[in-house]
């Protein structure tokens, strides 16, 4: 297969201007590696310029005010990154988790259990509902927690831990209730009059099946990390 020369030109420009525009890493070494991997992905997966631009806005500029070509390439590269990304070992985020744990008084094992259950440590994970990043935060929640880039591990873990800490305080330290609210939303939990783990056990069947499994899964994984 062949790649449109215009597409190749833009890929080369992205490499020499700023490396991978979606990665927090900006060193020449890393940008070169990322570029090579993305280019290889284009060649082996048969991506074409028309496929990459099919979802672009019709106007000459993107919603962000960027030239349409840059907007299109940015979105295409992120799509490729998400598809080919291999989750990092949990240990690579230990320092970030420990710091967030101390700041917000949430056990590090609980934070790690949430990350594992939410995204399996895939920093580029996006759910069907639009939740993003390691701790799978919705955009509105992320913004309220001060997150500008949900795919940045430090921001996502900080924001997710801060949000989880608030839920733990709201429900008096009852972890199971806080986790149910993290998954289903505090509004749904509150409407059922659930404030304690005992009340959650009584009314768990009234929550979505996903939430029921989620609470059990996170607590089980936390216990495994503690042992």
Automatic annotation (TrEMBL):
Record CDD domains: LT-like
SUPFAM superfamilies for this protein: Lysozyme-like
A Pfam family matched in the record: SLT
Domain of life: Bacteria
Domain Transglycosylase SLT: start-end pairs: 97-193
PANTHER family in the record: MEMBRANE-BOUND LYTIC MUREIN TRANSGLYCOSYLASE C, SOLUBLE LYTIC MUREIN TRANSGLYCOSYLASE-RELATED
Protein name: Lytic transglycosylase domain-containing protein
Source organism (scientific name): Paenibacillus ginsengarvi
Lineage per the UniProt record: Bacteria, Bacillati, Bacillota, Bacilli, Bacillales
